[in-house]
Amino acid sequence: MSEEDKGTEELIFEAAQTVFVQKGFDGTRMEEIARVAGINKSLLHYYYRTKEKLFNAIFKKAFSYFMPKVLSTISSDLSFDEKIKIFTATYVEVLLKNPHIPIFILNELNRNPDNAAQMIGELTGIAQNDTFGKFSALIQEEIDKGNIRSIEPEQLIVNLIGLCIFPFAARPIVQGIVFKNDKKRYNEFLEKRKTEIANFVLQSIKIEK
Amino acid sequence: MSEEDKGTEELIFEAAQTVFVQKGFDGTRMEEIARVAGINKSLLHYYYRTKEKLFNAIFKKAFSYFMPKVLSTISSDLSFDEKIKIFTATYVEVLLKNPHIPIFILNELNRNPDNAAQMIGELTGIAQNDTFGKFSALIQEEIDKGNIRSIEPEQLIVNLIGLCIFPFAARPIVQGIVFKNDKKRYNEFLEKRKTEIANFVLQSIKIEK
DNA sequence: GTCTATACACTGATAGAC
DNA sequence: GTCTATCAGTGTATAGAC
After folding, report:
1. Å from the B58 CA to the D13 C1'
2. Is-contact A55 A25, C-beta < 8 A?
3. Within a 10 A sphere around the Cβ of A1, how many other Cβ atoms?
4. Which nucleotide is nearest to A45 (CA to C1')?
5. Which residues contact B157 (CB under 8 A, 6 or more apart)?
6. Residues 6+ apart with CB under 8 A from B162
7. How far in angstroms lies nucleotide D15's C1' from the CA of residue A45?
8. Which of A176, A182, B58, B111 is deepest in the core (most CB within 10 A)?
9. Tell me: the pLDDT tens digits for A153-174?
């Protein structure tokens, strides 16, 4: 399907995604979305009544990149180490393809938590099917079996997710200040993270030393 | 000095800080700042000509909480382990007192990188006096001395900072989804982070196992 | 379905009285 | 220094022609 064959609705959706993700809800003008989509401002309202409805559609899609299905990795029958490795590598890969998603989601989550919570709820029916709860249980199991050292499962989970997301959410700091605006070094840095995060975490929690 | 004794300029500054940090530049209305400050809208322009100038003043102040002087810890004559412990503990403490700062800074840095970079530049004269460069050198020294395992200094630095900042920037996710909106558990979680982060990191990079 | 024209509200900023 | 009044510009949304 070529660019011209796309239906107007999809054209609008993609333009809205580009602008909303880059500028956030407050910073986005319907005018600009229309311009990017190459159509008239009124058509936006024809397809999506209000700015909020259009935004919410984008938010849902974006959130699925932010909290990807990767989390289902933990339900597989791989070894714990493999789960951590695949989870972090795949997560970083997804974010490399959608680098602006983290700050967009974090910011909108903060700006309008109630609406965001509702959008998230509508996504999976009910609270991600408690993926984090299952993840916690899995970690506790590993501790009980003596495979990893004692650590609060929630601390480990937040560490894992934070290590993946942070370099993207804080790109201007990491690229600009840590790497003195050397974009090439910043990108190499992210590339290495695919394996570096799992390595860093597993080194911290392994027991046989 | 009581609330009433404050000069108008300071009153405006504090009101602006409250609103800007909560709603960002695009989401903030001069009207609301005036209302929070309990003064007239025109007075804002009398003291700070434009919305941008007022915002920039707030941004500079906020950034000093985001990248606190804690970084100077690394120039002290403490042991490497102690430096990591004090750095992370103090950083988390600062953020506990200013929990909305991280997402505010990250978002504005992303929204208008050029202006933000200039504001940061005006803060310390020139690029933080290359604190991160010194930090990198310190880490490399420890590796060369055989005190910690081999790791790219930049990866370690980003891990350290990310582990401190992320739980604040992603509060709605961590408190809402991981802790199912149990605010008490979320706060206990943050409290424990003061020591947990250093512990987690040092476990990962120590050599004698 | 897509366009032009326009209503209506709001926002940042200024002018001018006190 | 502080206020009221007001302007000019912009933003979302709708009405109506085609």
Report:
1. 34
2. yes
3. 7
4. D13
5. A178, B132, B135, B136, B139
6. A162, A163, A166, A167, A170
7. 13
8. B58
9. 999 999 999 999 999 999 999 9
Which whole-number Å values give the CA distances from A178 to A167, A171, A175, B157, in the listed order? Answer: 11, 10, 6, 9
Residues recorded for chain A: 209
Q: Spell out which residues of chain A touch residue B24, defining contact as CB-CB under 8 Å.
A: 24, 26, 107, 111
Return all residues near B185 (Cβ < 8 A) that are at least 6 apart: B179
pTM of the model: 0.96
**How far, in Å, are A84, A128, A134, B131 from residue A71 at the CA level?**
10, 10, 10, 36
Nucleotide nearest to B49 (CA to C1'): C13
CATH ID of B3-49, from 1.20.120.1630, 3.40.50.970, 1.10.3720.10, 1.10.10.60? 1.10.10.60
| CA nearest to nucleotide D2 C1': residue | B43
Which residue of B103, B162, B196 is in closest CB contact with A166?
Answer: B162
Rounded distance between C-alpha atoms, residue A176 and residue B117, angstroms: 8
The fold of the B61-205 domain, in CATH, is Tetracycline Repressor; domain 2 (1.10.357)
pLDDT in tens, A46-104: 999 999 999 999 999 999 999 988 888 888 999 999 999 999 999 999 999 999 999 99
Q: Which residues on chain A are in Cβ contact (under 8 Å) with B143?
A: none
Tokens representing residue A150 in the block = 């004692």
Point out which residues pair with B206 in neighbouring strands: B148
Nucleotide whose C1' lies closest to the alpha carbon of residue A32: D11
Classify B92 as helix, strand or coil: helix
Residues of B in contact with A120 (CB under 8 A): 177
Distance, in Å, from the CA atom of A15 to the CA atom of B111, rounded to the nearest integer, reads: 18
Strand, helix or coil for residue B97: helix
The residue type found at A158 is V
> What ranges do the domains of chain B cover?
3-49, 61-205
One-letter amino acid of B61: K
Give the pair of three-digit tokens for residue A130.
Answer: 């408690």
